[in-house]
Amino acid sequence: MASSNSSSTIMTTSFGFMISLAFIFAFKLSEAQSSVPAVYVLGDSLMDVGNNNHIQGSVLKANYPYNGVDYTDHKPTGRFSNGKNTADLIAEKVGVPTSPPYLSNTNDVFLQGVSFASGGSGLFNSTGQGFLKKTISLSAQVDYYTTVHHRLVQQLGADGAQQHLSKSIFVVVIGSNDVFAYFEDDDIKNSKTPDQYTHEMITILQGLITQLHSMGARKLVVSGLPMLGCTPAQRFGSSTEDCNSDMNNMASSYNQKLSSMLSGLQSSFNDISYSYIDTFAVLNDIIENAANYEGQSVPAIYILGDSLMDVGNNNYINGSLLKANYPYNGIDYPGGKPTGRFCNGKNSADFFADKVGLPTAPPYLSNTGDVFLKGVSFASGGSGLFNSTGQGLLRKTLSLTQQVDYYSMVHDRLVQQLGAAGAQQHLSRSLFVIVIGSNDVFAYFDNGNNRNGKNKVTPDQYVDQMITILQGLVQKLHSLGARKFVVIGLASLGCTPAQRFNSNTEDCNSDMNTMAIKYNQKLTAMLSGLQSNLHDINYTYFDTYPVLYDIIQNPANYGFAEVKAACCGLGKLNAGAFCTPLAVYCPNRTDHLFWDKVHPTQQAASILVNTIYSGSPPHVTPMNVQQLIAL
Ligand SMILES: *[C@@H]1O[C@H](CO)[C@@H](O)[C@H](O)[C@H]1NC(C)=O
Ligand SMILES: *[C@@H]1O[C@H](CO)[C@@H](O)[C@H](O)[C@H]1NC(C)=O
Ligand SMILES: *[C@@H]1O[C@H](CO)[C@@H](O)[C@H](O)[C@H]1NC(C)=O
Ligand SMILES: *[C@@H]1O[C@H](CO)[C@@H](O)[C@H](O)[C@H]1NC(C)=O
Ligand SMILES: *[C@@H]1O[C@H](CO)[C@@H](O)[C@H](O)[C@H]1NC(C)=O
Question: Which Gene3D superfamilies does the record cross-reference, listed alphabetically (predicted)?
Fold first, then answer.
């Protein structure tokens, strides 16, 4: 390879890994990972996944060893890297396949995104071009995107394409090669000051981003330059192996201009959002505080609870009618399939998993011998804190106590597989989500003459018993490694369609609501007491009651038109029967708060989980899940 351009390759291998970390860090802070239909990648060798392989008469390639030595099958692919590169890691993070190189199939519509990135390229058309050196300048990459955009509009219609693109991510990583070119080419260096040069770079980039915006781009991820002067190639030029400080200064001056250009663009367009990655600062921080960048991910989610979280455990319970594995449940789930979720589509467990970038934790009963390294769900429709809740003739469920017993078996297997210290490390960073109590409250009112029904014990006594049982189980989970809890309080249960059904005036059941509020108060006190006693737990408490109540009072603020009746059921308020194939269902599920007579719709679950994840006090205390994860 021509020596004057080897620097960009060297830069990639020395900084590639850390830049990937910087990106992954940025993605964690942003919420970019939820429902991204496509990723469009523009840039240089940091992101190239093979475009340059298709360029004739150029040596700017990486389709030979030892590139790819750590890639699948140890194969060189055109990535300027030992293994996966940043483009691959971003794709994994947002849950789409790595965007393929545009030149691999220039006629495709690339519905899940495409990469135009090309090793050696820059903002100036001349960067990376020369004898035996050819690359796709950023400007040519945007021209290629124009073609793809055109095809998208043909295939999806103008509105459909815009809808698709506005949710997609446009990643732009460019500029390093322009800076290298400035220092390597005396003609450039003598004709422009560093300030003029970076100013021109920004002007070009601004024009190209404006073009992308005019073709639908709304979510941008733009990377600044790293400390290019500290690459081995630059230290090589110093007798003391020092960084090239002129080059570092140029990079940081470019970054300053870039971040103000981006914020200017945002105010003039009003409809873009972006994540600017100050690669320079992030890398500096990574180098200086390496320890802070470990242990922030969530290795696993353990879910305990009732039908709000059940993703199919009850399907495996014999001789029980407490199931949701028949239509119209699942009508909006991928494939339109009933799965055992008591919902029209995804439920809260799915949205939780989406948020942290894990697959939905599978039902424990689907494979009771598994170690479930990424988590598992014990949640079971109908269950409660009391062993008796939800049990009866043709009704069977996994009580919370039973769920914790099952967890202890999973814990044993984890210890076998990872060792005691490894399992503890794994569990202490994992989330334990607990959603329970609604069925106990229902049971109190439904079975008044039971041993602890409403005719035998006071609401206060009952709630105290519930809290005592929960406290014991949380302590047991703690003794089995759990350190981060997400505990969900009770909703305004008296306002479910099932309760309004019992009122001539379709009012809420206020006794039931009062009990829910009382439980929530005692629950918060119990949790904070537990934290003082145990010293090493942290938690998110979500006060569902006021959040749901506000939705019911102000439906339009949340996009709902119907908050009293169930979508699917029979009779008054569709609350006379559960959602079965004999029921009727509403045509528009996105404007209903309740799917059936007790369960929220997918739309409602999504709103609730968003709040738990990134909401603030007083509804989410003492911290939200995003902050809990970051601890
Ligand atoms: C790069 O080339 C294109 C034509 O291929 C031209 O429209 C554009 O102005 C050039 N950009 C710069 C910065 O010279
Ligand atoms: C349900 O019945 C099947 C077949 O009889 C059996 O294999 C399975 O273990 C039972 N499930 C439970 C949870 O007992
Ligand atoms: C529930 O049942 C288990 C045994 O299966 C028992 O150890 C536990 O004490 C019971 N919990 C309550 C609250 O009765
Ligand atoms: C996490 O919990 C521990 C004690 O359980 C506490 O010392 C620490 O301050 C908590 N962290 C935050 C950020 O609240
Ligand atoms: C469904 O309801 C939502 C929210 O109220 C509304 O935005 C949408 O237009 C409705 N869709 C149809 C097909 O009526």
Answer: SGNH hydrolase
Ligand 5 atom closest to the Cα of residue 560 is 5
Q: Is 596 a catalytic residue?
A: yes
Q: How far is CA 426 from CA 67, 418, 481, 488, in A?
A: 32, 9, 9, 23
Pocket test of ligand 2: the residue of 317, 318, 323 to mutate, having most ligand atoms within 8 Å of its CB, is: 318
122 and 177 in contact (C-beta within 8 Å)? Answer: yes
Task: Answer whether 484's CB lies under 8 Å from 631's CB.
Answer: yes
Name which residue sits closest to atom 12 of ligand 4, judged by CA: 538
User: pTM higher than 0.85, yes or no?
Assistant: no
Q: Which of 348, 599, 606, 619 is catalytic?
A: 599
DSSP 99: P
pLDDT mean for each 10 residues of the chain (631 residues) = 33 41 46 67 89 81 68 73 74 77 89 92 92 90 96 94 92 93 91 96 97 95 86 72 86 93 92 82 51 56 97 95 93 93 96 88 94 95 97 94 98 94 94 98 92 94 98 98 98 97 96 98 98 96 96 96 97 94 94 97 96 94 93 88
Active site residue 307: yes
349's CB contacts (< 8 A; 6+ apart) are 303, 309, 310, 311, 360, 361, 377, 379, 433
| Cβ partners under 8 Å of residue 405, min gap 6 | none
Q: pLDDT tens for residues 137-182?
A: 999 999 999 999 999 999 999 999 999 999 899 999 999 999 999 9
- Choice from 316, 322, 409 to test ligand 2 binding pocket (greatest atom count within 8 A of CB): 316
Q: How far is the CA of 398 from the centre of ligand 2 (A)?
A: 14
Find the ligand nearest to 537 CA: 4
Between the CA of 99 and the centroid of ligand 3 the distance, in Å, is 52
The rounded Å distance from CA 467 to ligand 3 centre is 14
